Amino acid sequence: MTLADLPPASLRLKLDTQALVANWRALASLSGTARTGAAVKANAYGLGVSHVVPALRDAGCEQFFVAHWSEVPDVLEHVPAAMVSVLHGVSSEAEAAFARSSGAAPVINSLQQAAIWQQSGGGRCHLMVDTGINRLGISPAESGSELIASLDIDMLMSHLACADEDAPQNARQLQAFRDVSAGIAHRQRSLANSAGIALGQDYAFDLTRPGLALYGGVPRPELQGVIRQVAYPEAAILQVRDLQAGDGVGYNARFTATEPMRVATVSIGYADGFLRARGGACALQHGGREMPVLGQVSMDMIVVDCTAAPDLVAGDFLSVPFDLPREAGRSGLSQYELLTTIGSRFDVLVNPA
Ligand SMILES: *Cc1c(COP(=O)(O)O)cnc(C)c1O
């Protein structure tokens, strides 16, 4: 028995790839003479490797960063392996073997990883040096080791901890990166993420590595008005209901109607990245009208107040606000969390008319 074609989903994610490309170009321009890559880990921050990578490749992006080896095959559908780097590096023989067969470059993060890579045969790799984030990377003190000297290092990298703030640590990390790179043979250097690009061209070196800002995130005020929204979620109404005074809505009846009112049950929940933290202050929209979320967010549903839009019926799609800085401010979630929790139940519509 074969299944009929899947019907359209009750969730849509409209992607504006022109805004995506415009964001990449704006970041490239702020990066000055440095080239600009793209962090596409976590399925391009939830927006979909299969849409994001080809659009950026066609715009001229030549370096794509993922975190896990499991993320490599999807990226290789769209770009050659020489353009792909894996931030978690190689922690086992199995990972080194996969790295070699894929051709993607590991970012070596420790002496142990360096040993695993060299034992597997070595070859082109990148090296992460920790200059203060204390997450991954060899320490500056380890940079003189023979093992490090034996590596074929294409890109010497470090990562900023506080680039989204005006913290003295930014300048300290910049200086530490300059100092350590004098003692390690390498072909190019890379330090800045999205926020680091906004710190100025001192931070750009040879390659910048934006993620968040490509997808509409605004980590620093310098990028306000420069970065455009890329993703526009929409969710369909499943049912419209009429409540009486005293009727409770949703789990634990966190909202109770005080008078008769029209509400709609909408097909989006925390499994679709609409986390409970977003329920309180959020309103869905239709034709310029606002429909506030009522009560608790469920896994697959929310209920909204339709008083302002009595004409709406089941099947109508409502816009879910996704201006990332604004929604992060309202919910207490980070812009990164808003993106990467989106989930897989959306029909992605690329540049719909
Ligand atoms: C995720 C990541 C980036 C991209 O950071 P954004 O803040 O999303 O721009 C760059 N470099 C490294 C090492 C990363 O882990």
Mind explaining what this structure looks like?
The protein is an alpha/beta fold and 353 residues long. It has two domains: 17-214, Alanine racemase (TIM Barrel), CATH 3.20.20.10; 231-350, Lyase, Ornithine Decarboxylase, Chain A, domain 1 (Beta Barrel). Helices cover 27% and strands 22% of the residues. It contains twelve helices and 19 strands. The strands form four sheets. Strands 1, 11, 14, 15, 16, 17, 18 and 19 form an eight-stranded mixed beta sheet that branches. It has a seven-stranded parallel beta sheet with strand order 3-4-5-6-7-8-9. β4 (64-66), α4 and β5 (84-86) form a beta-alpha-beta unit. α1 (17-30) packs across α3. The longest helix has 14 residues, at 17-30. It is elongated and about 75 Å long. The mean pLDDT is 97. The structure holds pyridoxal-5'-phosphate. Pyridoxal-5'-phosphate is lined by residues 39, 41, 87, 159, 193-195, 209-212.
